[in-house]
Automatic annotation (TrEMBL):
This is HPF/RaiA family ribosome-associated protein. Pfam families: Ribosomal_S30AE. It comes from Oceanobacter antarcticus.
Length: 120
């Protein structure tokens, strides 16, 4: 696994959550091998009492030339009282964003190769 940093804020460290993040990060980096690093911040901020405590997971995924930020705020999603669901949702969003960037890069390279081939 390439550079992975995990931070916990407003919540006790959890080996289970850390293991879940490591597994999902490993899967993400094996799918997209150009990822240079991942920084995950897991927080359980104090929300309004009528909503309960909702988990907040944010990710920064390093790619060559850019950093993709995933801040998955679901203040009205009661499913995010479960930290594992919040982690899953954040990594799913990261995968969608990185796939979109990857497809644009591949398409751009394909177009550049086609233009060069036509010019010769």
């Amino acid at each position: 696994m390439k550079g992975l940093a995990i931070s916990f804020r407003d919540i006790e460290h959890s080996d289970g959550i850390e293991t879940s993040i490591r597994e999902k990060a490993t899967k993400l980096t094996s799918t997209f091998d150009d990822i240079t690093g991942i920084r995950a911040v897991v927080a359980m901020p104090h929300n309004h009492s009528y909503k309960g405590r909702l988990a907040h997971v944010s990710l920064e995924v390093g790619l060559p030339g850019e950093t993709v930020a995933i801040t998955h705020d679901n203040h009205d999603n009661s499913d995010h009282e479960d930290m594992y669901v919040a982690v899953r949702d954040a990594f799913e969003k990261a995968q969608r964003k990185i796939r979109k960037i990857h497809e644009k890069r591949v398409d751009r390279n394909r177009r550049a190769t086609t233009v060069v081939a036509q010019a010769t």
